[in-house]
Amino acid sequence: MFYRPEDGHGLPHNPFNAIVTPRPIGWISTRDSEGRDNLAPYSFFNAVAYVPPQVMFASTSVKPDRDGTKDSVANIRETGVFCVNVVSEALTDAMNRTSGPWGREVDEFADAALEKAACETVDCARVAASPAALECRLTQIVQLPGEANVVVFGEVTGVYMDDACLNDGRFDVTRYNPLSRLGYMDYTVVRETFSLQRPE
């Protein structure tokens, strides 16, 4: 089949995010200007540059208690910093819990029974049990077409890695099995890898 998004797909569910898969999950931790912590997963997330290292995530919906966006973006606008926590298979249920539509006063770390650790280079918390975390300073927020579509870009200023995930000098994802987002309500877990050499 072929469809133009402006005309609709005619299927029971939108296939767009089932086509663009798998997607890494950016579990974004922030702190507002009053010191309240927030934690929420975003599946429109990725790394975008090596030098300096940079990442992005997109927020595509709004909360009634925020000005046209969600807690993560609102907090980053206030403070200019955030942290990306990697989601391991073991953290699946906690990640899902933090995706709820909780009020801005709710600390998702506490609600999901997650221990906090202090970031080293930015003023916010990270998920202590996460196998890796990227501490970031905001570089820009871009408003995309669409009512609530916002992309946040950040430069990575600090990198945490669990030593148990290091194997012969490499960060080994098979030691924690990252969770990835598929379409609809579906997820997958990375359990095996293979290598390819680029042509010379």
From TrEMBL:
<dbReference type="GO" id="GO:0016491">
    <property type="term" value="F:oxidoreductase activity"/>
</dbReference>
<dbReference type="InterPro" id="IPR012349">
    <property type="entry name" value="Split_barrel_FMN-bd"/>
</dbReference>
<protein>
    <submittedName>
        <fullName>Flavin reductase family protein</fullName>
        <ecNumber>1.5.1.-</ecNumber>
    </submittedName>
</protein>
<keyword id="KW-0560">Oxidoreductase</keyword>
<dbReference type="InterPro" id="IPR002563">
    <property type="entry name" value="Flavin_Rdtase-like_dom"/>
</dbReference>
<dbReference type="Pfam" id="PF01613">
    <property type="entry name" value="Flavin_Reduct"/>
</dbReference>
<feature type="domain" description="Flavin reductase like">
    <location>
        <begin position="18"/>
        <end position="173"/>
    </location>
</feature>
